[in-house]
Structure formats: C-alpha cells, structure tokens
Amino acid sequence: MNASAPEVLRVAVAGAGRMGARHIRTFNALAGVEVSVIYDPRPASECDLSDVMQGRCTQSYQAFLEQARRADMAVIAGPTATHFGVTRDLIGCGLSCLVEKPMTVRPRECLMLGDLARAHGTGLYCAHIERFNSALQATAGLLRNHPWEEVNITRHNPDSARLSGDSIVTDLMIHDLDIVQHVMGLTFDALLDVESGADGLDLSAGEGADHVAVRLQTDAGYPVTLSTGRLPDSRQRAIHARSAKGSLYVDLLNGGHDLQFATPDLPAAPEDSNDSNDSDALTRQAQAMVCSVMDGQSHGLASAEQSWQTLTLCQLIEQRLRLAS
C-alpha cells in the first residue's frame, strides 16, 4: 500500500472464536482501521462480538471471499487445520495476512504460503504476541548481549484449551521457541534434551502430555531450558536468567522485570513499562501489522520462514517425545 491508500484500512477476519474475537476488537479499535467482514461457520449470535460486528459476520465462505477482495488485509484465526487453505485463498485475493500461531499444521506449508505471498506482492506474518510484550521488548537487548550462564523460560497455563490436533508443544511451547529464536537466535541443531510427563508418568506428545521440558543451545552462546505445562498450578509466564555477575527476572504475565547485578559497571536496568498486559501486546501487534501493510516492512512480526523454523523445531521435539515414550 502506498500514498494512495484509502483513509480507512479495511480488515477481513476469518474465525471469530476466542482469539478471532480478540483480533476483531483490537483492530476495530485502531484509528483509521475497520473490520469490514468476518467469516465464521457458526451463527453470528454465537460469537462473542458486538451487535455491529455480528452484523458483518457471514457463515458463507464464498461470500466472505467476495467481500474480502475489497479489504486491505486479513487476519486468519480459525482452527489450525484451516490456516493453510484460508490463507492461500486470501493471499489470492491480494491481501496481506496475519495468521494466528501456529501458521500451519506442516512446516513446509509455511514456506509454500511465503512463496505465494511473494508472488502476489503481499505480506505474510504469524501472530506471535509475545514479541510485542513490553517486558520482553525492554529486556531483549540484555538477554541477547549479556554473557548469561543459563536462562530458564517457564510457561504454565492450566486453562489452556486442548485444541484438536495441537499438542502442548504447538499450543504453548511454540511461544517460547519463538522468543528464543527472535531474541537469542536458534537453529535446528540447537535441541539438546527433551522430557515429557503427566502425573509423574512419561507420555508422548499430544493431548496426554501435561508437561514438557526442553533444553536448547542458543546462538547467543548460552543454554536455555523451556518448561511448559498444563498442570493445575497457578499461571506463569516468566524468564529467569543468571550469570556470575547477576540475574534478570522477566515477568511476561504481569509485566515488569527485576535486574540484579553485583557490580556497577554493568548495564543499567531497562525501565519498566506499565502496559505489559496481553491486550496492549495485541494492540502493538495489530499496529505493527497495519504499518506493514502501509510500507511493506515487517515491524518485528514473525515471517513465514521464521514460522517454518519454529514449527520444524516443534516437530523435532514431538518426535523426541514419541521416541522416548
């Protein structure tokens, strides 16, 4: 989109479930942005949307595509199994697309969609919301550049829906794999160790696995341990980093961080932000997507190639879990 862009940027949204409804509310609240059409196979009255937004819903996929051709971008937030086909169709309509994570079921489909988007001259990105968590944004440079001895990332969400076809790895751990890739650097040979269990028993990946622990070697030079669970604990989303000179705690769930260094010659603690909650991160992500539509730059959004790499690591982890069970 260039200087001749319309005054109102129109967004087509496929999927009005929990995340789709959040995207709809977030984009429609932005100045100069309007959600113009919504597709969901359910009746509009069953979607958690305002009366105005329900009036823009259709259960007809073909009617949705016809109206989407008049939009400027699209959000794909339906079941993961539908992402590839819907995104392919919307790219074919000439729309830049923001796809909920995981971008597709199979890693190679990310690359196929990336090639298609380039052929049509449209943008394609995956909605990894933690990239826009201001607590992470404030500490990313320190996490990337300080010589940490070890970093632990914990994500426990007992309320996480057990989505059909999505294991705990592709449902939850994928957030932290993207953090490591985005902030610290990650390659396929980074995988050091994988463990899984539930109620003290070793289980394969999939619906039965309530906890997965993964150890990785980052491009930044230090190991990272990811601990992800659906166990009946309190919710946690945090990063703990330590070195011989001090420690850093990043609270991704509630915002803020605590930096403790023993010597004064080390970097000053980054300033805390008071707007680190999920709603604000979702708004920043939406703003980044709007900017991307306007100027063609990524603005920190996850590319199809990065999504391919993260999803490939998910599959490698799940293969290790199955072999160990």
UniProtKB/TrEMBL annotation:
GO terms, molecular function: inositol 2-dehydrogenase (NAD+) activity; nucleotide binding
EC number: 1.1.1.18
InterPro entries cross-referenced by the UniProt entry: Gfo/Idh/MocA-like_OxRdtase_N, Gfo/Idh/MocA_Oxidoreductases, NAD(P)-bd_dom_sf
One Pfam family this sequence matches: GFO_IDH_MocA
All copies of domain Gfo/Idh/MocA-like oxidoreductase N-terminal, residue ranges: 9-124
Region of interest called Disordered, as start-end residue ranges on this chain: 261-282
Protein name in UniProt: Inositol 2-dehydrogenase/D-chiro-inositol 3-dehydrogenase
Organism for this UniProt entry: Kushneria phyllosphaerae
Gene: iolG
